[in-house]
Design goal:
- The complex is a heterodimer.
- By secondary structure, chain A is mainly α.
- Helix content of chain A is 79%, strand content 1%.
- Chain A has a two-stranded antiparallel sheet with strand order 1-2.
- In chain A, helix 3 packs parallel to helix 6, helix 5 crosses helix 6 and helix 10 runs antiparallel to helix 11.
- In chain B, helix 3 packs parallel to helix 6, helix 4 packs across helix 6 and helix 5 packs across helix 6.
- The longest helix of chain B has 36 residues.
- Chain B is an all-alpha fold.
- Chain B has eleven helices and no strands.
- Chain B is globular.
- Classes of the chains: A mainly alpha, B mainly alpha.
- At the A-B interface, helix 1, helix 3, helix 4, helix 5 and helix 8 of A face helix 1, helix 3, helix 4, helix 5 and helix 6 of B.
């Protein structure tokens, strides 16, 4: 008799708990959705204002070569070029290093290689970007100044700093891919009498290539959006660089330096928001490419 | 024979590059600590910074970094946990879930400077929170939430299925299962991940330039009333963090000892990050042992 009275109470509590959990977690997820849409909305409205309200032509912004906001010149090509060149170079420097590191951990000495390199990679990922910038500024820039023509500040310094920053990203993706490779593929190759390098270059790397490329693209995305470390070593000159040792600027470095010096709502300010919009747009492109590569990696 | 020689060479190259990375890290850590530690003293850690004169410290910046970290985590943890639990336990494998997953991925790939600019527009200006610790904490929450969601989701997913089934068999509500069966098991992984995420917050700077600001008012460290304007605890005051300070000193510092200050501050920052890392590993191990009774 007693149990019969308790049952509805328990049932009600059961339902209430069910609802608390559902509502709480759903609100958290909704928060995420609201954030992403408002980021895109707010940055886009500000970024589009340059073209819609201030009448700067889109082609001037994207392909214009001269930057002089005070003289109404809004050519952002030098910065766009700077961003692309530095992040591409960074990926070019970091990729072989990262692939070697992950091969070291998975194919050469899996026993102690992981124990040695994994913490190193984690620490590299944990070092704050301003510290990379500081090291770049005090070690790399003087070194480049003494060994190569130019002031030391420039594309080379920026790309090298960025390449070390994105090393962990590429390495961890590549290591995951290499680690999940079916063993019989390698065994078949060894069974045919192939050497380790023949196995790696002929079987292992071609199989994991799409996955490794995913890591490279993720690394490039990170390099493209990195702001302060690059700003500290790149020299911040508003020209399309013609040599590795020449000062340049990236989209992020220009935003960093100029945002607080311009008044909200002016053309000079809006054009910086257009660059932020461009960064946002590039993020979407990078993710799109990553998704495409992931789909290929599955097959 | 040639194949063997090539194999040797390739192996040597791979080993060389792998060791080069280890050397690179050791070199950088060594450089930072060697350059910086000589400059670290009690006075450096506690005295306020100087803009023009030499001999400025990093006291307020250090305090700001820690306080901002605490504020951020207070906001991030409940939100990130909730969303992570949703993804692990409530989300069904359908279109909607896939798009939420995409949103988490996109959000975590946004450049931090863009998130900072969004904070400037919405939090600092529209919500009128000004350049303040609160604005900084909110923007870091946006920045950190995807990470927190991923950590929570993975931690919940790695709980053995049988534990959940046992709870279901007992007729517990799903929320009860989550909070009293799954959560304790997932906790070590969540704590480890959270500390690592906190280490990242500590070093973040780009998003803070436009939200927490690049200045700190004169603080009265004897005044602990969070509503007074010169109290260090006041969340509505502007606050320059350690990472922002390093950037500022390097790019526009005019104090004669700017390089030394940057070196000292970088060393402090690195030591903190290392401490977070070690703490996370240690705590993760201890908690894992405690919850799983593995000796």
């Amino acid at each position: 008799m007693k149990a019969n009275n308790e049952a509805p109470v328990l049932f009600r509590r059961h339902k209430a708990e069910e609802w608390i959990g559902r509502i709480y977690t759903t609100v958290c997820v909704l928060f995420l959705i609201v954030i992403i849409f408002s980021i895109v909305y707010f940055v886009a409205t500000k970024g589009v204002a340059t073209f819609a309200v201030d009448g700067v032509s889109m082609s001037e912004f994207l392909f214009g070569n001269s930057w002089g906001p005070d003289d109404n010149k809004f050519g952002a090509l030098p910065f766009i070029a700077g961003s692309f060149i530095t992040s591409l170079l960074a990926a070019l420097i970091a990729s072989p290093l990262s692939i070697c590191a992950s091969l070291f951990m998975t194919e050469i000495v899996p026993s102690w290689g992981k124990k040695l390199l994994l913490p190193v990679i984690e620490l590299l990922a944990g070092i704050p970007s301003v510290v990379y910038g500081f090291i770049g500024l005090t070690v790399l820039v003087p070194f480049l100044r003494d060994t190569f023509p130019g002031q030391g500040y420039g594309v080379a310094a920026g790309s090298i700093v960025l390449s070390i920053m994105i090393l962990p990203t590429i390495t961890s993706v590549a290591t995951d891919a290499l680690g999940s490779l079916p063993r019989n593929l390698k065994e078949a190759s060894y069974g045919l009498g192939a050497t380790r390098w023949q196995t790696i270059s002929g079987v292992v790397l071609p199989t994991v290539l799409p996955a490794v490329l995913t890591g490279v693209v993720l690394g490039m995305a990170r390099a493209f959006g990195e702001a302060l470390a690059v700003q500290m070593v790149i020299g911040n000159a508003p020209y399309v660089p013609t040599s590795l040792f020449e000062s340049a600027s990236t989209l992020t470095s220009v935003i960093t330096l100029n945002m607080s010096n311009t008044v909200m709502g002016t053309v000079q300010n809006n054009v910086l928001w257009s660059m932020a919009l461009l960064l946002l747009f590039m993020t979407f492109i990078f993710i799109f490419v990553v998704r495409l590569l992931e789909r290929r990696a599955k097959i | 024979m040639r194949a063997k020689v090539i194999d040797r060479i390739a192996t040597t190259v791979i080993v060389f590059f792998a060791l080069l990375i280890v050397g690179l890290l050791l070199g950088m850590l060594g450089f930072i600590l060697f350059r910086g530690i000589s400059h670290i003293s009690w006075d450096f850690l506690t005295s306020p910074s100087e803009t023009i004169k030499a001999g400025g410290g990093i006291g307020p910046q250090l305090f700001n970094s820690v306080y901002l970290l605490v504020l951020t985590m207070i906001i991030t943890i409940p939100l990130g946990l909730g969303a992570g639990i949703y993804m692990a336990e409530y989300a069904k494998p359908n279109r909607l879930t896939a798009s939420i997953r995409l949103i988490v991925e996109v959000l975590s790939s946004f450049p931090s400077i863009v998130v900072g600019l969004f904070g400037l527009l919405l939090i600092v200006q529209t919500f009128d929170l000004k350049y303040s610790l609160m604005s900084g904490a909110l923007v870091l929450t946006i920045f950190n939430m995807p990470l927190m969601v991923r950590i929570t989701e993975q931690a919940f997913r790695s709980v053995p299925k049988e534990q959940k089934e046992a709870g279901l068999a007992m007729g517990l509500s799903r929320w009860k299962i989550i909070t009293s069966i799954l959560f304790p098991v997932a906790l070590p992984a969540i704590i480890t991940g959270t500390i690592l995420a906190a280490g990242r917050v500590f070093g973040e700077a780009a998003a803070l330039l436009f939200t927490a600001g690049m200045t700190t008012p004169t603080l009265d460290f004897t005044n602990w009333n969070p509503f007074d304007h010169n109290s260090p605890l006041n969340p509505m005051r502007p606050a320059e963090t350690l990472a922002v300070h390093i950037w500022k000193v390097n790019s526009e510092g005019i104090a004669s000892d700017a390089k030394e200050i940057a070196a000292g501050a970088s060393a402090v920052l690195i030591i903190m990050v290392l401490a977070f890392n070690l703490l996370a590993r240690w705590l993760g191990r201890v908690l894992y042992r405690k919850f799983t009774s593995i000796k």
